[in-house]
């Protein structure tokens, strides 16, 4: 039998980049200050300020993330529509040892991202899920990209991950002694989508 070739179509993009610098003392001080103003999330804590990138100490980080968002839309979305992506809400998550971040997705958003301010490469990861209904579910012998219902990636300080907001994800119970600190954000678009003559035009 001739060896088979397996191609993948319609893949889910998991965009990975890095911040090319360390955070400044002012930025780190603001991260610590924000930890004092929080609410209890399902498994960890989240800053009450959910427009954190609009704060003065984070303006340089916002400029850098804006460039990364633009790169995502150019390389992944690659649209001819006259639109501009922009970050909507943004917030800080703090996860201590034995805490977790519940399984969730991000409604009212097109793309979501996470910037890792402090994490441990050996212990910290982000886990994604394929939640589509399966009419028939066979028992699995060997897990791979085609049959897996979940997939995780290790993350380290400075990493940036972006993905479709509809993609379910979570942080499993944290190991290690560091405080995992992440800056999460959502992205939407403004401009004109579709075509006037085709009656698909949408002005945002």
Tags for this model:
single chain, 204 residues, alpha+beta, eight-stranded antiparallel beta sheet, four-stranded antiparallel beta sheet, 12 strands, 14% helix, globular
Task: Please describe what this structure looks like.
The protein has 204 residues and is an alpha+beta fold. The chain has helices at residues 25-34, 59-77, and strands spanning 15-18, 38-40, 45-47, 82-95, 101-104, 111-118, 125-129, 150-154, 159-164, 168-171, 180-193, 202-203. The strands form two sheets. Strands 1, 2, 3, 4, 6, 9, 11 and 12 form an eight-stranded antiparallel sheet that branches. The longest helix has 19 residues, at 59-77.
Q: What is the compact description of this entry?
A:
With 204 residues, the protein is of the alpha+beta class. It has two helices and twelve strands, in the order E-H-E-E-H-E-E-E-E-E-E-E-E-E. The strands form two sheets. Strands 1, 2, 3, 4, 6, 9, 11 and 12 form an eight-stranded antiparallel beta sheet that branches. A four-stranded antiparallel beta sheet has the order 5-10-7-8, with no helix packed on it.
Topology readout:
Blueprint: E1 15-18, H1 25-34, E2 38-40, E3 45-47, H2 59-77, E4 82-95, E5 101-104, E6 111-118, E7 125-129, E8 150-154, E9 159-164, E10 168-171, E11 180-193, E12 202-203
Antiparallel strand pairs: 1-9, 2-3, 3-4, 4-11, 5-10, 6-9, 6-11, 7-8, 7-10, 11-12
